Amino acid sequence: MANPSSFNPLFIGVDAGRILGTKVPSLPVERPLVGNRKTESLTVAMPEKRARTIAGLAVWQKNKAIRYIDDHIEDCIRVEDVASLVKLSASRFSKAFKVSFGRSPYDYVLARRVEAAKYLISNTDEPLSQVAHACGLSDQAHLSKVFKRLVGVTPLKYRRASGRVRNVSAPASWTRLAPSLEAAGSLM
Length: 188
Prior knowledge:
Blueprint: H1 9-12, H2 16-20, H3 59-71, H4 79-85, H5 90-101, H6 105-123, H7 128-134, H8 140-151, H9 155-162, H10 179-187
Helix pairs in contact: 4-5, 6-8, 6-9, 7-8
């Protein structure tokens, strides 16, 4: 074997001196100013990470997701279910959904539930607890909390202010949420 002192400790490693039975000169080490001063770290030039661009959903995927959410607004809507519907993994779907809609799937579903609640509140005389369940919210307190956060007023104040103005811009699938509305529509 060649002279042990001719080995480069950077290529052999820290244990080179112990293995070869010689003393390896110490390497220059920088002490970071942040964090625990007892730790030492080597300064290594790391290549910059490339910024990944995440594409949004295709048009057919957006339409299918929106239709599924509107048709199942009263049910428990899981990200995994909608993702499998558009042939994506749950994490990939969540990222693409946020790019396409500007909000997470959870926030979108919550906003659609509040829109459905607004529709039912202004078009029916159903109690708020029934409206909450029809929109997939757990109870009236949950409806009031979410409604006030997103709309700015409580559901009762919204009902009083709406004055029974018929809102016809709601999806057709939401009419099934209000049985009294369907009965009123058949009388006309």
